[in-house]
Amino acid sequence: MKWITRERPKIDRIACPWLIKNFLDKEASFFFVPPEQVLLKANEMNAIPFDISGVEYSHDGEFCTFDKIIKKHNITEPVLLKLAVIIRGADTDRFELARQSAGLWAISAGLSYNYKNDFEMLEIGMKIYDALYSWIKFVPDERHIWKEDLRV
Amino acid sequence: MKWITRERPKIDRIACPWLIKRFIDKDAEFVYVPFNEVILKAKELNAIPFDVPDVEFSHYGELCTFDYFIEKYKINDSAVRTMSVIIRGADTDRHDIASQSSGLWAISAGLSHNIKDDNQLLELGIILYDALYSWAKLLMKEKHTQNPIDNLLLQVFNKFLKQKSGLNRKTPPWAKELKEIIQDQIDTNLALSLKEISKNFDVHPSYLSREFSKYFENLSFGDYIRKLRIEKAIKLIHSSNHTLTEIAYLTGFSDQSHFTRIFKKHTGKNPSAFRKNVLKSKSDTKS
Fold this sequence. Notes:
The complex is a heterodimer.
Chain A: E1 2-6, H1 12-24, E2 29-33, H2 38-45, E3 48-49, H3 65-72, H4 78-91, H5 101-114, H6 118-138, H7 146-151
Parallel strand pairs in A: 1-2, 1-3
Chain B: E1 2-6, H1 12-24, E2 29-33, H2 38-45, E3 48-49, H3 65-72, H4 78-91, H5 101-114, H6 118-139, H7 148-167, H8 173-187, H9 194-201, H10 205-215, H11 221-239, H12 244-250, H13 256-267, H14 271-286
Parallel strand pairs in B: 1-2, 1-3
């Protein structure tokens, strides 16, 4: 399936493709276009528009598009539900939601500034979300302490 | 110059190479070896050991190796200083010292779990610290929400509505107006706000708001913007084959019923009735 959204992605428009590719449709392809062309091109290309106001896959109240996909597709994996809170916090400027949101925002904002090519941004972003997923799933309690670290 | 440290880097052993490459020696090379081989290999390779105990480039008290590099090479870049606190927090498990430390740690711990090749990890790490640097240098003040003032307004307004309905009073006209303005702000990406516009003209928003109607057909700012959008909708009904839903979207309304209501207020007709008339008059002229 094709998915289309606004260009210059930062958080939600990277995290959603990651979620879709890894958990809904590994063949999915993504397109980034200027905001005013999203709906038009979606029609033309038979692609699903997302993260733009007025479509199904979009923000809903305080929830972001990543939340919407999880809800709509009845995803219940606890790791993803935790990840959703971090992403929501970073995407909606509510860093109090999760301790990791502020750092995710800083890194994403910087990446977006450094990479003007949306697909390059997407490629790097995929690795960031792979990492956050692994952190929640495999090493959430790992501590990094200088002296202890050395004994390992 | 060659630098050598322990294998399986996470924070400091990625951040320091980044700092060296960007500020000290862009051709520097980095070698990762098991902990107990660092000193031996350092001699063999004529490399400088770092981030292991009992060498010069290492932790000192609460400070991590990244801090020491900054100190030693007198790096005065303010963005690097900002980063150093975040990095120290993530590297020494003191996530309270910078709000970005927890996120940096989570991403770094996850990357280290996913990528077992240290050089590959370094490559990605450089991208990560370049990003953090751009953020610290240029974007720190930036917020992601397109219009944070809208969110604030919305919160205040929702709170107000709740209180009002509890008291069961009639909504005063100003609140209705406020509601329309907020609705517009949510609907449109144009995000025209009096506040921003007044900033451009260097006048106070309340002055602009007061004076606006004198010069714009006696309409308030909100009414005037809505009028323009309805006029655009009428144009689209005349000239295109868009559905009414599409037209509502194209004129900045995300909610069909809101579009219908505003349209009727301005034209006296529902959009669908309006369109039927247009189609009829078109076929009349043809025949």
